[in-house]
Design goal:
about 375 residues, alpha/beta, Rossmann fold, 7-stranded mixed beta sheet, 4-stranded antiparallel beta sheet, globular, binds adenosine-5'-triphosphate, binds magnesium ion, nucleotide-binding
Length: about 375
Amino acid sequence: MGVEVRVEGLTKSFGSQNIWSDVTLTLPPGEISVLLGPSGTGKSVFLKSLVGLLKPERGSIVIKDTDIVRTSEHRLYEVRKLFGVLFQDGALFGSMNLFDNIAFPLREHTRKSESDIRWIVLEKMDMVGLQGAEGKLPGEISGGMRKRAGLARALVLDPEIILFDEPDSGLDPVRVAYLNQLIVDLNAQIDATFLIVTHDIGTARTVPDNLGLLFRRHLAMFGPREQLLTSQEPVVRQFLNGRREGPIGMSEEKDVAQVEAEMAALEARGGDQHNGVGPKGASGGDAVPPQLEPSPGLPERQAQRRRQERVARMLHEFDPATAQAIRASLPEDLLAQADAGVFAPTPLAGGRHWAAESAPAGGAAVLPGPRGRS
Ligand SMILES: Nc1ncnc2c1ncn2[C@@H]1O[C@H](COP(=O)(O)OP(=O)(O)OP(=O)(O)O)[C@@H](O)[C@H]1O
Ligand SMILES: [Mg+2]
């Protein structure tokens, strides 16, 4: 089963440039989470911090009882083996063919025989649609193929935590649809904890259990996908609808008067409901489309029931629109329990959207800025 990742009060700067402060969230075990955010808000820096490649100056990242911000190099090396990571640039070795690139973690971290390695590598290449390309060098293949080679390499060690940094960038829309299905299928097969950074709103709407948004050096929101998809928070709505009007500017933040004027003009045109379909799968309104399911013949996602129980406990914390969207995803038995008051109300937990049973269960994070309706 995937492991929980607990991030608390995380702050990262490079010299005098603060990237983000006080990021607190928990990736529930085996669930799929998506992290969104304007370019340059530090999504890649966040992923690199999770694997211990960058050192945040404050806060903690606890994985299997180890705070990897503070642990020894030796322990960090061990914890890293839990991760499968696809970096934004793919990071393949240019002088090695795809087979050797994908085999690299196995040769580095295991004592498997070459025949076992061959079997695993070919299986993963098949999984991502690269059969027959073993002998190609990274320079000889398309950008999309390099991406998928990076995916295959991220999977060879049977990771318990999977981090994908824009796995869909540079892929055509059909490949993105296949990739999204692959992610859900993988999750059903290995029950690992996924965190995916993407700019594709179609993916963000349909793939994950949880959604988060980084903005202005903070985690603006992190919670069940229904929470963000129904949110009235201006920055969340602007991002999910892929429009110019709102707090996010081209290169920097806009001033309040400008945002207010833009929003008034938008309302006069009918608001987001009349936005039509924006770039990268962004769409008008706050509908919550069904979540993608594993392909026929695959097991159910083990995280599904855990997630249903988790959000059933949190129902009372959400505004009516979010609660209604979540209820639509719950089975009868959990709805009945929630309505019978079986789940004791839990206090909000300072931005953590979820905590293990022993700790006070978490509230919806809205940090900082206006609380809006969310
Ligand atoms: N090693 C580093 N040293 C100094 N600054 C860095 C380093 N890595 C990243 N940065 C800075 O941190 C900020 C966030 O970068 P990051 O790559 O995480 O953004 P991002 O959200 O992933 O953007 P995009 O959506 O374009 O990929 C940028 O201003 C970048 O210049
Ligand atoms: Mg990035």
